[in-house]
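for ur thesis appendix - Glycolipid-binding domain-containing protein. copy paste whatever u need, i formatted it the way the template wanted (i think)
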Amino acid sequence: MPRGRYSLHDPHDHTPLAQEHFQCAPGPSGWRYVSQLTTPAGDHRGSVDLALDDLGRPIRLELHAGGWQVRGAALDGVTWVRTDPTGVHATEGNVRAHAFTGTSPAFLVATVRLLRLTPSSSATRVRLVAFTDPVLAPRTVDQSWALMNSEAHATDNGPLLVDEYQVTALDTGEQHTVHIAGDVVLAAPGIELEDLQSPPSRFD
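the 3d part is after this line
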């Protein structure tokens, strides 16, 4: 069960945004990721709880940030309920999309699990609902993912297979690279793995 800490920063000007303390593991029904976020000053900032089924679909998502809350799942595309900080108003949303995304590294692993790309695969298009900080506002995004390279690196615990993905935002054409080993993000724009207390889990 990997556990550790990511640092999140603005990918454009590198302003520190948060520390994300996480743990994740495959289970009998798929994969689960839970985390607590703190500000650079150490104050509580929010939380992430994401569970996937064996096919990589989100069977449960719960996000907290700035007093806002989102609960969602794959249902007729993806469906969610967003509640305001007062708890008085809740709005429901539904989009014909494949899954969710956001600032947490969990969503990158989740997208990879959903797409199951191979180096011989052509670039695959995916539609995601992104919940953007600081109020978890929903926004539909279209991306293209391609697995560019898989490389084994020697470690004390045996070889570690690192996958390199190229992600393209289809609305702007902007491209970036994501490096993932098992269920841990090693590097991505705005994300740095600062601490890892056990090796990444390997998916079958």
